[in-house]
Write a structure and sequence with these properties.
Helix content: 40-55%
CATH class of the largest domain: Mainly Alpha
CATH topology of the largest domain: Helicase, Ruva Protein, domain 3
Number of domains: 2
Order of helices and strands: HEHEEHEHEEEHHHHHHHHHH
Structural class: mainly alpha
Shape: globular
Radius of gyration: 21 Å
């Protein structure tokens, strides 16, 4: 949606995205504002521009804005008010024209009430609010999104696009998609890669999708089938969230230590290699 807003706007700069939850706290300042040469250990010799400068006359998406530390929220608020950046180890301010889009899957108003997000920053960002319902509440979008992902991924992998069979579309429409659109894209990607025929068929889908199982079903380990489905689910969520243990554990509604035990039990390798490890077994 953020890219669509940018494409439909008259802004001539580029679209830049930053996931606030994936950048270590100590690096977030340099990611946003940039730095001069020798600013810190490990810095590039020539320095680097930040995301604000990169998105000059364009659009900057701050994804998972709820994960931004409070001290960085102060810096962001100051930038929104002044539209000026000063790189780390520099004393030369620079005027920047950026449209900011902030996104989160959390209740930001509740975070403000709990003191986890600055109220002044919340109101500066919340000028035009767009609430996007979860995928389970707009299942009519699933066929359109799935077809779009097939087309997009086919170009990326340089392979012929394949239609999704009606059985596959029916199965996808029955699932509740706790991982929302990212989970759907992940499943479509796997199905496209595994498909050997002229179309994508149900046998290319993960077991937990075929069986219509959702997160709450994975607390039981009563049979080999349940364990296989649980492993598939964990691997899929690790892939969806880029190996992020906290987000995966939260999605499964289990503690981080419990998830680590399950990862060890099923011999799952973290991050993107999780899928490869799963295929070996």
């Amino acid at each position: 949606m953020s890219r669509a807003i940018h494409r439909l706007s008259k802004r001539k700069g580029c679209f830049v995205a930053l996931n606030c939850g994936s950048i270590p706290k100590e690096l977030l300042q340099s990611e946003l504002f940039g730095y001069e040469q020798g600013a810190f250990t490990g810095a590039r010799a020539q320095g680097s521009i930040g995301k604000f400068e990169h998105a000059h006359e364009g659009t900057l998406l701050l994804d998972e804005i709820s994960e931004m530390p409070l001290d960085m929220q102060v810096s962001l608020l100051r930038f929104i008010q002044e539209r000026v950046v000063t790189r780390i180890s520099s004393n030369k301010p620079k005027k920047v024209d950026v449209r900011i889009i902030a996104a989160s899957n959390k209740d930001m108003a509740e975070l403000v009430r709990n003191g986890q997000f600055r109220e002044d920053l919340y109101y500066r960002l919340n000028v035009i609010e767009i609430n996007l319902p979860p995928l389970r509440e707009r299942k009519s979008d699933i066929p359109l999104l799935a077809d779009h992902f097939v087309s997009e991924l086919s170009k990326e992998f340089q392979i012929p696009p394949k239609p999704l069979s009606q059985d596959v579309l029916h199965i996808l429409s029955q699932y509740d998609w706790p991982g929302n659109v990212r989970e759907l894209k992940n499943v479509v990607e796997k199905a496209l890669v595994l498909s050997e025929g002229m179309e994508i068929t149900p046998d290319c889908l993960p077991a937990y999708i075929l069986h219509g199982k959702n997160t709450h079903a994975y607390h039981k380990e009563d049979s080999i089938e349940d364990e296989f489905a649980e492993k598939e689910r964990i691997v899929q969520l690790l892939e969806t969230y880029g190996g992020n243990i906290s987000k995966t554990a939260k999605e499964l509604n289990i503690a981080r230590n419990t998830l680590y035990r399950k990862i060890e039990k099923y011999k799952i390798t973290l991050k993107t290699s999780a899928v490869q490890e799963n295929k070996k077994n």
